[in-house]
Prior knowledge:
This protein is α+β, with helices and mostly antiparallel strands. It has a single domain (4-103), classed as Alpha-Beta Plaits. Helices cover 31% and strands 38% of the residues. The chain has helices at residues 14-26, 66-76, 94-103, and strands at 4-11, 32-45, 48-62, 85-88. It has a 4-stranded antiparallel β-sheet. The chain starts with a strand and ends in a 5-residue tail after the last helix.
Amino acid sequence: xxxxxxxxxxxxxxxxxxxxxxxxxxxxxxxxVNIIKKIRSIYRxxxxxxxxxxxxxxxxxxxxxxxxxxxxxxxxHTYELPEILVVNLSDSEKKFQQWILDCTVSHx
Length: 108
């Protein structure tokens, strides 16, 4: 069975989070995207410490679509350096893994 992954990214607005989520699901690049509202992010960027309110996207997809997901996020995102973190889910429940595979495109 092909591996599945979570891709995590953050945005500064709910509208942008929804746009990314809808694009990924409509293109078949993600089975599901959860949006967690109003997280607080404290981080260092360009020598300064920032304290911002953001939206966290949890993107469920197949490993073979990682590059397409990353490309789509970068096309839409407004951040100079969008956060794109990948977590392998190989130990996940098998039926859930199969659902993700069934809901995403298998090749280009």
